[in-house]
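Data availability excerpt. The first of two example chains:
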Amino acid sequence: MVSAAAPQPTVRLSDYRPYPFRIPAIDLNVVVGDALVTVTAAFQVEPMDAVASTAMELRGVDLELVSITIDDQPLPQEAYSLTGGGLVIRNPPTQPFKLTTVSRLNPKTNTSLEGLYVSGGMLTTQCEAEGFRRITFHPDRPDVLSRFRVRIEADRQRYPVLLSNGNAISVEPLADDPSRHVAVWEDPFPKPSYLFALVAGDLREIRDHYVTASGRDITLRLHVEAGDEPYTAHAMASLKRSMSWDESVYGLEYDLDEFNTVAVRHFNMGAMENKGLNIFNSKLVLADAESATDGELERIESVVGHEYFHNWSGNRITCRDWFQLSLKEGLTVFRDQCFTADLHSEPLKRIEDAAMLRNTQFREDAGPTAHPVKPDAYQAIDNFYTTTIYEKGAELIRMLRTLLGPERFMQGMRLYFKRHDGEAATTEDFVTAIVEGASSDGQSLGFDPDQFRRWYHQAGTPRVTVSSQWNGEDGRLTLTLEQITAPTPGQPEKLPLVIPVLWAAIRPDGRPGKEHLLVLDQQRQTLVVEGLPPAVQPPVLSLFRNFSAPVTWDAAQSTDDLFALFAGDDDAFARWDAGQQLWKQLMLARAAGTPALALEARMLEALRQLLSQQGENDPAVLATLLAFPGQAELEALQTEADPPALERAACELREHFGSQLASLLQARLDAVASGLEQVWPAGQGERQLTGVIWSWLAAAGDTTARLSSVAAVNGASMTLARSGLRALQPLDCPERDQALKAFHDRWQERPVIFDTWFALEASTPRTDALERVAALLEHPKYDPMAPNSVRAVLGGLVGNPRVFHALDGSGYRFMAEQIIAVDQRNPITASRLAKVFSRWRTYGIERQAAVKQALSVLSDADLSTNTREVVSLMQA
């Protein structure tokens, strides 16, 4: 038996060497027994070097090796050895040969949710990044591409549905045992082992079809557990929209005869793009307007698109090694963001993505776990499935499009897909293809691609300072921009990056002038703009329009400038960002105990204009402008981060503005009421704005708003139900308990939705909140094996600042103890939870001491490699 190995040594990009053997074809025979699964793996092997014999290393974890043969001849025991990490064949043939291994495994004892494991009554797999080694002995690295043929044998009654990658070749009863049956699947496209998938279970099938642009009829099948069939229509429709969009925008057509999707309750990730057999966390499949919010419906559509788009950006072109992870993930996030923007609102999608980046990725960049988009070393690759790899990686690609323009960028994309189809590629290959495709007409790039590549290798969020000089008589504006990136772990010195700056000057009549692109590629750079309208006052600058680069900036803009932009900039992001800067000033002042009364009065007047009949007409835009900045952004601006004080400030401001603007807010509620029942995607803005107004009015003590919030919990819209719950959650009032109880009673039999109740309960501020969180972990509906449940309860606690950040350290200690418990069964989930301590050095002395004690508790425990790596980084 080969068991889970001891802590792994550091893996370095500089040590990469091609695997010395090709494995062009693999036949798998998977026999599912009552307890154990037997896997016979037959590899066609072609040595890369026919002269020198090289040992063949295969990875394997928790596998029992039954037999091993080469060219059907048993291998002598002295010719191979089992190690802590797998199997080593000492002197394999130097000519092509067939390697066959037979191994056994027990999926019921596999709690890691990697490899082959049990979820409910079904067997399922998760092989990215290194799960295939838990199924059979294999190199298990992404640069080994093989065509797979898979035979699955199982009991017909327990496992009536047998699925794997590619196209179904046959499904028939076993000739000598009719109680069992066999399915054979064949994937004609070479793929790495991390894209292998297998599902066996008693599932219900929802079938549809899609006709491609070339006229091929593709069978679409979505598989769910009994009773979940009514909640699949949205996911199926999203898949068809994704297929159509990829054809129309990229010219990429689906390449198999069928596309299968399976919903799984126990899943570490959101979803997985296995070739032809996508496996989804049930939360991201099962939904309708009654059971999911508008945001969740859009998220599901986006994730369904993301996994489908991987068919080309990830599957047909895969990663050479795991350091190239953003090659597939950053590109596919960019593609799914564009998909959502095209189907809904491009400006609001851009704001949503920018807010997410600021509150997650920027926070990561500023902490001990900061790393480049392309890391150069790791111990556990699972720790690098981060917002840096995904969302910042997507921003790099968006900057290329901004620098090159949409047409030239798409020329580069077409070259990339053509040149590297069927290959395991690198980020260098990607940038080279984009650059060569864009410059195929001889046109200058306008930037240095080698310097642009620094974005992949340099961690941290650049900060740009902008200063200006104004000659009002001549209409001449001189801008001086400087960029600096603060040191990050392992990278004390930073070099200048290529930063696209989209900007415009607001004319005296309040309208923005022409938009300009400035390529900032020096540490300090000056730009002189002539021909602006003469005026005494300098023009207001609209900077980093459309969030043209993942940076922070300081332009020392006056309050007048910010209010001017907030009132009417034609760039939605720049307008929203100006409002965010004002909200930050207000909230930080409140949190410090010194309210900025003059600024609050001015904001009150601006909000009156915004809410008036002559103000903002789009309810979605209005709701976005009224939204407060995220907690992480605000913490980063405090001298000593004080999450409870920021929470208190938000409550005070909602109460203040809710009281002062009550009549205008009520008028807006009345105006949007007729649109609340529209079917998604219609009505999103009306419902979003209603939720914001409820939270302000409820905080101000408005009884009608509180009762409306309670009533929404039993209504037909999950968006309004959750909005009502969020409005009441910070308030110690009877309506809060009524709403939470109503939600509990209504949804306790639907685990996918009931996890929301766990999160709400855990994040509700109460004097006995920590005791309640502990009780939730013993709740009969809590599933400790389901990452969704774990994240709901423990993530909810983290979202409860008064409790998690209690000065006595009780919240920190409780979390550390729970992370240790989770780590024993699921290291991936535990290591991600451990990152909640990553910003501890920004707290005050008392909280720092409390977190250090919690980290010591973690450090002294017997931790997995995944969690140990994270804890060590935070203690460094």
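And the second chain:
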Amino acid sequence: MLGFRTGLEFLLLISTILHISAEFFKPFNVSYDHRALIIDGERRMLISAGIHYPRATPDMWADLIAKSKEGGADVVQSYAFWSGHEPIRGKYNFEGTYDIVKFVKLVGSAGLYFHLRIGPYVCAEWNFGGFPVWLRDVPGIEFRTNNAPFKEEMQRFVEKIVGLMRQEMLFSWQGGPIILLQIENEYGNIESKYGQKGKEYITWAARMALGLGAGVPWVMCRQTDAPENILDSCNAFYCDGFKPNSYKKPALWTEDWNGWYTTWGGTVPHRPVEDNAFAIARFFQRGGCFQNYYMFFGGTNFGRTSGGPFDITSYDYDAPIDEYGLLNQPKWGHLKDLHAAIKLCEPALIAVDDAPQYIWLGPKQEAHVYHISGHAAELNSSLAGNEIGCSAFLANIDEHNSASVKFFNRVYILPPWSVSILPDCKNVAFNTAKVGAQISIKTVGYGSQFSNVTEAGNLVLHESSYISKTWMTFKEPIGAWGDNNFTAQGILEHLNVTKDTSDYLWYIIRIHVSDEDVSFWEANEASPKLIIDRIRDVARIFVNGQLAGSAVGHWVRVEQPVQLVRGYNELAILSETVGLQNYGAFLEKDGAGFKGQIKLVGFKNGENDISKSLWLYQVGLKGEFMKIFSLEEHESADWSGLPYDSIPSTFTWCKTFFDGPEGKGPVSLDLGSMGKGQAWINGHSIGRYWSLVAPKDGCQRTCDYRGAYNENKCTTNCGKPTQSWYHIPRSWLQPSNNLLVLFEETGGNPFKISIKLRTTDTICAKMSESHYPPLHLWSHPHVFSGKLSISDATPEIRLQCDDGQTISAITFASYGTPLGSCQNFAQGNCHATNSSSIVFEACQGKNSCTISVSNKVFGDPCRSVSKALAIEAKCVSPANGSVASF
């Protein structure tokens, strides 16, 4: 992994990278045939890592790219985010987290290729699917159909991005890393909604893209009617059965959903790495050539970028690199081994022009054999010894039972729901169900622990210190607060008013209550109700400055009793968005706020329809307008001290100062004691927070990787807040005097907010002496000459802490027949007494270590017994356990 002793070293590296020539490679062409992408004249089997640059900060990019490369990626893939790059029509932003040029150059300088998905509709659970909200205001516009205003705007942005990449010499034929582009995104899912105009649109989009002369292939994902000269591709949990719409095109998997997104009030999805590896191995087994992880690093929805509605701020996605930039083990390590095994097969995979040889091995077992000669008749004779020109995949798709199969006169045991990869058609280099990578247990987090130790969802919450005993508050006015409000007849659509400059819009009206109405309510022991036909996402109802009630949902009906008094009453309804709709047809028509009638019922004279009355509108919050969350303007508010351990009232701004945690590890903020709102650090928006609790039921005690996966199969966090911890990028912090500002809507206790480093606390591994040997031995020059037998090589356990950490203690070590799983190991009947001392000597005080699993190292504590090595160790950093100081 990439590690830096000082921040200066890191800055010098970035400076060097950005000042080198844009010619990261010698100029090369990219084309394709029916089998694969052809890069510089050669077919390639490619692994791609999905990383969205705005979901990380620029100081994180180089490390994320390096970890992706170390994990076996050849390509980095990202969307181009229109809403971030053109927030105001005609005014472009390519700075900071939106410096796409810098990001692509960093990818190229690491020796990786780049797949740029321009869209410009991207979805990605991004606010409004990546469209800038001003696009709704273009006269006569209809999104994603044969509509002249939309096509004009779309073409202008696509031309801007392609032109920028060409100007910066970033296409492959210029010596840059970009090998693929994408136009549109999953349009095939909704094309039928637009009828003939949809078909015309997709034809236009392809023609427009090709006409830009980018010089690399274009992709349309999930587009079965993609034109002949545009590649179509698969997005799904499984794509081994995908066939492109033309024999002339290769099989591409642009989105391998190795996790899933999370919504407020929902459980947290996890995808077992064994199943993910199975799906990928099956894809290459059956003829695939390009596979991209969606996501390899998910990141964070900073600011108000999360879409949905109701998608949470974290976009961790159970990815191989977690939200904080740390390796998610064993997922990262197991997939790294998978990638290495696939690469060993690449010479044979790219040599086969037509389908590989298919061999039936059983009712749910099969083999696919790739041989450089292409003649299946030659296989039996060539397999007398190791053969570099032959590779095979043996699959057992039975969900429950292992299978013993005979393949070319050898017997192989295949675990259920697994694929064994034989780079030489003889020796197994990798099996998708046998995880040899370490497990990492991280501090600071949430989630149930699966008893299946190979699942990487195990997080533990350590004791924490509260961030501050000194808080100041500022009361947000209820209703109108500034000179920029206005009146209008009737109910205006939320986005038409706010232009998405804020989540918040006040609708305010005065209601007169007569003596007769009050007498009517007293006589009938009743009270009036406010009825709103439909609201989204949140509505808060105030009567005379007091909160009467709230409603949450996506276009749900509201019936709220209200306490009105004699005379004039002020009714203020706050409409809140929690991410704009990001998926589906006719996005421009979805809108926000209220639909239908708003009326008061229960009056003496019946209903009072106030929908068409005169309303006062106020966009946003006073604190937002004053920017009291910023370092420059926070003192402009009239702050008051908050008595210790008091709970501020609803609709209150809170601020404090704190010192940054020591060390260099990623930082997390615990907002579990708060209700709902938004948070800023030194003027940077962390995003929305909300302590909605997931349902108590629906999570599984164990996660069984076997069988087809869906996003509800292996979930955690039942009965707990969906998200409590929020990522603070290191680059946003200074050593001391950091400003934290919250806007709290529903009430919470800021004195219980804590901040800690997120680090790996415990690492574990367990491996049998019969496990497959290390994949790096396959590159030994004597393996295929027969002078060295790969089957005689010794398996190894490799342990590694995070960058900057060292192994501080060996809490368990046993070579023999150890029992249990990570954090629950125990000695079995067979145990080598020197286990701890040998592991201690190899690992103590080091960042990483490797131990062979063999009698040669530990001796033979019990003959004729199959043995394994189990290790559990602690990782520590120089500032381990430190918290913010105050």
